[in-house]
């Protein structure tokens, strides 16, 4: 067992997240009266990467518009050219089958909760709500994304431990504005006595940025700036198919959260950026990537990493990379977290038993099986060679040693 204790799963609070798609494996839509026929109405197992989905931002539904755009890539070919309304209805029917009535009610309540905030809260820095690369990011990061090559990414990154990438990302002014915006939001919350939902089940302080208007900006951050990197370094865990996110800030220090226990994130890829302020302590510690089955397995020496936060500096890692945060011993530390998710990867994961392409313990088990197989093969070969070449009178002794018999 890891010396840092059992791993918790760091999840969002109980307000629901809609399902990303059906089961992705030939799910038929429920029957409906007077429905137009479009031939094969079963979803594609793999997404159509050539298809450019429509936008559903104006669609009246309890489901996130991003879900429809993502799911559209899995529609059967016969439906790709039908009117958007027909596609939307077809996808609504599928989603309804996989979201119980109680969950649908909670989704609707969260939507109403968010609308209530947006209708009342007045942003302090309106320029934050749209991506402005030159004022948000440092030039080296922008250039790396623009070049979009493994070499350009490697040039700005350090990899202190396999699968953990660090790089300078945010302009100091952006960090200041975002901190101001969060503080302004918290003042508004206290003034109107509005009870807000916290970022996840492990943090008692902080705010969900998506809930007060920053969802579109963060989604663009994921799509245009994190996805290109994730496609290169995290393709085996859905880095090539990221299609939704959960964005929030967490706060540590006096009268805030002090530390964060050993856990895994509810994400495929996690972006963690230190915004400031002045603080000491609060180091991240990493202990290897694990699937659900092996999440509490022993940590290997080469998997141990301690990392100290630096304002403006980003850490990018798999959500299943076990980690935690040491106590912030003085000052006030605030971090921006973006949990990036892939509905396709989550669906496909349901049908897999081995994750040796990314789980450290699965890799070790696979190597051990291979080692045992090679050993057994060598032993059989030795037995055959010995029984073929040694004198007959020595067979009895060799049989006793190898447990074999002469035929």
Written account of the structure:
Strand 2 (158-161) and strand 3 (164-168) form a beta hairpin. The radius of gyration is 26 Å and the shape is globular. The strands form two sheets. Strands 2, 3, 4, 5, 7, 8, 11 and 13 form an eight-stranded antiparallel sheet that branches. The protein contains eleven helices and 13 strands. It has helices at residues 65-72, 84-97, 101-120, 133-136, 139-147, 150-156, 172-192, 215-233, 343-349, 360-389, 395-402, and strands at 8-10, 158-161, 164-168, 207-208, 244-253, 260-265, 269-276, 279-281, 284-289, 304-307, 313-318, 321-325, 328-341. The protein is α+β, with helices and mostly antiparallel strands. The longest helix is centred in the C-terminal third of the chain and has 30 residues, at 360-389. It has three domains: 19-98, no CATH class; 108-358, q2cbj1_9rhob like domain (Jelly Rolls, Sandwich); 361-402.
């Amino acid at each position: 067992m890891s010396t840092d204790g059992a791993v918790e799963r760091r999840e969002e609070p109980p307000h629901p997240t809609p399902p990303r798609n059906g089961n992705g494996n030939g799910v038929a839509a429920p029957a409906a009266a007077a429905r137009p026929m479009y031939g094969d109405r079963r979803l594609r197992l793999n997404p159509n990467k050539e298809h450019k989905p429509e936008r559903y931002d104006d669609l009246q539904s309890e489901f996130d518009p991003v879900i429809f755009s993502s799911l559209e890539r899995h529609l059967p070919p016969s439906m790709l050219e039908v009117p958007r309304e027909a596609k939307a209805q077809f996808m609504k029917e599928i989603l309804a089958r996989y979201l119980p009535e109680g969950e649908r009610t909670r989704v609707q309540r969260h939507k109403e909760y968010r609308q209530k905030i947006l209708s009342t809260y007045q942003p302090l820095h309106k320029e934050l709500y749209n991506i402005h690369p030159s004022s948000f990011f440092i030039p080296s990061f922008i250039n790396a994304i623009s070049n979009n090559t493994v070499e350009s990414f490697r040039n700005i990154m350090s990899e202190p431990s396999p699968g953990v990438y660090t790089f300078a990302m945010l302009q100091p002014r952006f960090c200041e504005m975002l901190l101001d915006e969060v503080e302004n939001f918290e003042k508004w919350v206290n003034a109107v006595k509005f009870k807000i939902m916290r970022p996840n089940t492990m943090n008692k302080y902080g705010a969900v940025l998506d809930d007060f208007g920053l969802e579109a900006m963060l989604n663009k951050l994921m799509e245009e700036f994190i996805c290109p990197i994730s496609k290169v370094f995290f393709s085996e865990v859905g880095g090539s198919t990221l299609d939704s996110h959960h964005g929030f800030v967490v706060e540590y220090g006096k009268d805030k959260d002090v530390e964060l226990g050993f856990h895994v994130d509810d994400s495929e890829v996690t972006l963690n950026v230190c915004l400031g302020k002045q603080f000491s302590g609060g180091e991240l510690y990493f202990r290897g990537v694990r699937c659900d089955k092996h999440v509490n397995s022993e940590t290997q020496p080469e998997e141990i990493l301690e990392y100290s936060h630096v304002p403006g500096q980003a850490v990018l890692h798999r959500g299943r990379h076990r980690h935690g945060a040491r106590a912030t011993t003085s000052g006030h530390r605030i971090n921006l977290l973006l949990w990036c998710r892939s509905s396709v990867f989550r669906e496909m994961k349901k049908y897999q038993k081995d994750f040796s392409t990314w789980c450290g313990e699965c890799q070790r088990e696979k190597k051990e099986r291979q080692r045992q197989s090679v050993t057994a093969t060598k032993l059989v070969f030795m037995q055959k060679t010995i029984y073929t070449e040694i004198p007959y009178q020595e067979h009895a002794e060799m049989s006793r040693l190898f447990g074999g018999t002469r035929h």
